[in-house]
Amino acid sequence: MNRLITWLEREAGQDLTEYALLAGFISIVSVVTIRAIGPLVNAMWELIQTTIASV
Fold it and tell me: Averaged in consecutive runs of 10 residues, what is the pLDDT profile of the chain (55 residues)?
């Protein structure tokens, strides 16, 4: 019984799990941000192309 309690109290993989969750969260936020900003950047790029072509 003591071995089971000792095994459950160990925190050996806790740091790795926290880093994995943090990396997953950062990835999700990055994808959402890029999808939100993408159309704005595309519109700006098309404006620049049109302006350069008319010069």
Answer: 75 80 97 96 96 91
Residue with tokens 């943090």: 22
pTM comes to 0.59
Would you call 22 helix, strand, or coil by DSSP?
Answer: helix
Q: Which runs of consecutive H residues, i.e. helices, occur in 1-55?
A: 2-9, 14-54
Give the phi and the psi of residue 9 in degrees, each rounded to 5: -85, -10
What are residue 12's phi and psi, to 5 degrees? Answer: -65, -40
Residue 21: give the domain boundaries. 2-54
Domain count, the chain: 1
